[in-house]
Design a protein that fits this description.
CATH topology: Lipocalin
Organism: Alteriqipengyuania abyssalis
Number of strands: 10
Helix content: under 10%
Oligomer: single chain
Protein name: Lipoprotein
Order of helices and strands: HEEEEEEEEEE
Distance between the termini: 41 Å
Largest sheet: 8 strands, antiparallel, barrel
Number of helices: 1
Number of domains: 1
Strand order of the largest sheet: 3-4-5-6-7-8-9-10
Length: about 140
């Protein structure tokens, strides 16, 4: 198994409040603020990327591939957020989604989740939202 697949759950499990309680949206079973049936949409800049994850399927888009690449992912829940792992074009793909106000730096939107994405050796940061927990700000900035 890839080291990151092991490391991400440990990092998510370590996210706790000062009094030892789990982060917002956690239960004894792990992070539960985003249901398994919800679609998570995500976006990032420099380089621009976006996509969505629904169930065990993730679609990753770039300006060079606006239709995106769809591939299988495994979802796991830590005490401070969610993780998704799969393989994109032969490279390890690992993404965490954690609660916290996030700005994409390009629009006047505020998103409810932050995203850390690692594709192979490349790490990117972005923002995420769901239909139940939408971003705040203009629909089309």
């Amino acid at each position: 198994m890839r080291l990151l697949v092991v490391a991400i759950p440990l990092l998510l499990a370590a996210c706790q409040t000062e009094n030892g309680a789990g982060a917002p949206g956690t239960s004894p079973e792990g992070f539960d603020a985003i249901g398994k049936s919800e679609t998570i949409r995500f976006t990032g800049t420099e380089p621009f990327w976006s996509g969505k994850v629904s169930g065990e399927s993730l679609t990753y888009k770039t300006p060079e591939n606006t239709d995106g690449i769809r591939f299988a992912v495994r979802r796991f829940s830590g005490q401070g957020g969610l993780g998704f792992s799969g393989t994109l074009d032969g490279a390890a793909f690992d993404m965490t989604v954690t609660p916290g106000a996030c700005s994409d730096g390009m629009s006047d939107r505020t998103y409810p989740y932050t995203v850390t994405l690692k594709i192979g050796d490349d790490t990117r940061e972005g923002c995420a939202w769901t239909d139940a927990q939408p971003f705040e700000g203009p629909e089309a900035p």
